[in-house]
Amino acid sequence: MSASLILGIWFVSLLALFWFDPAKEPKVSVGLWIPLIWFFFIVSRTPSLWLGLSFASNLGQALEEGSPVDRAIFSALTVLSFVILVSRSFQWRKFMSQNTALVLYLGFSLLSVAWSDFPFATFKKWFRDAGIYMAVLVVLTDSNRLEAVRTTLRRLYYLTIPLSVVLVKYYPNLGQTFSVWGDREYTGVSTSKNMLGLLCLASGLFFFWDIATRWSQRRNKRNKRVIFVNIALIAMALYLLHLCGSKTSTVCLILGCLMITAVHSKLGQRNIKWIKALAPAVFLIYLVLTVGFGLGAKLSEAVGGNANMSDRTRIWQVLLSVPINPILGCGYQSFWLGSRIQWVWSRLTGDNVFEAHDGYLQTYLDLGLIGLFLACTFLIAIYRKICKQLNPLMPLASLSIGLWTLMLLYNVTEAAFGGGILWFTLLMGSMTVPVRVKARAKAASSLKTRETLLPEVVADR
């Protein structure tokens, strides 16, 4: 078959899947398409990259100024998200009081514009990400939060996973690339093999969680069809994960699935306190083995990597030698701007990286020790919220505990704090939002009606 025919079959199949999806929930709002567009660009490429447009004469200018096309589209999405939240009478003050740790982290990130070497570029990056947070709130303020989260993520992975397979197999100029050493790398809809691995990790975990939550009612015809579709998408994600060879994503996917299984098992439900302790314990054990006993190289080799963790230890050494303000950092997402990036590349001899390959180190470089402290404080605060949802078990709690656990480990060798699909999915599963004014009024009206009818029912009896 020709590549164009395969692409056409994929497009028709996608439309059919959207329309006849057995998991389709008609009660969710049309506004969920806005977060879907945001998340699509997060897990794949920016609009200008998809269109093949370039507005900068060199890499430094591109990193500092960005693309006017991207800016226009992202600004439009931000405005639309804000309008939706206003139409839902979103209570900003109450939201900030309920999510103090996140607000402090975002507030400090905005404040970093003051000491950044590139204040305008720093502010633009912060404003762009603020739009994504608004998109997350659009999902969470839907009248049916659980189905809104499910629908948004399901649509996202319906779109990106099969398309990645098509690009890898039939459009190698878009779905494949070559490293600086000449090795073939599979990227799919993403920009690198690690980003494709992250997409496979996030999608695989979501579909596994969806199966776990429906498993008790697996004999239901609708749930049978949903589980079948989930398994098909998991198979595609595992195929792509095998192609891209991301060891970190593979290990984290296994860990996240084990955590979800433990939460939904009868043994886990009877010993929920052990489940709560298991998540941080896994990370502490890892730290003891790697830092205390120096077994990081052995663990890397055990999962198919090499002793220097694919040159990450060399990258970390170079980055830690860069002269920065250790307390305040360089500014929100501003470390990889200006002369610093050339300084780093000159010492890595050909390894032109754009991230620290460590979320903790990346946060330190951008926001210093204060920013790292605030990020860790937020993780602790959100963990406490997740634990409250485990007993009694709320549907999104098992997904959140799985994400929280693998986030700790994933950020040891990759950077996913403050952005990316894992971060925003974790927020959707565990962030507190005020009850919608209309929904609260409707609930109060319903309660008042029941109270009015109750005496009449008693009288009739």
Give a short summary of the structure.
The chain is mostly helical.
Average pLDDT score: 85
| Cα-atom radius of gyration | 23 Å
Q: Note the run of SSEs as H and E.
A: HHHHHHHHHHEEHHHHHHHHHHHH
Q: Biggest sheet: strands, sense, closure?
A: 2 strands, antiparallel
In terms of topology, how is this protein built?
Blueprint: H1 3-20, H2 33-43, H3 47-51, H4 59-65, H5 68-87, H6 92-98, H7 100-111, H8 119-140, H9 145-170, H10 172-175, E1 176-178, E2 184-186, H11 193-214, H12 221-244, H13 247-264, H14 266-270, H15 272-292, H16 296-302, H17 312-320, H18 339-348, H19 359-388, H20 395-413, H21 421-430, H22 437-460
Antiparallel strand pairs: 1-2
Q: How would you sum up this structure, described in words?
A:
This protein is mainly alpha-helical. The chain contains 22 helices and 2 strands. It has helices at 3-20, 33-43, 47-51, 59-65, 68-87, 92-98, 100-111, 119-140, 145-170, 172-175, 193-214, 221-244, 247-264, 266-270, 272-292, 296-302, 312-320, 339-348, 359-388, 395-413, 421-430, 437-460; strands at 176-178, 184-186. Strands 1-2 form a two-stranded antiparallel ribbon. A hairpin with a 5-residue loop joins strand 1 and strand 2. Helix 2 (33-43) crosses helix 9. The protein starts with a helix and ends with a helix. Mean pLDDT is 85; it is low at 441-461.
Key features?
single chain, 461 residues, mainly alpha, 22 helices, 2 strands, globular, disordered C terminus
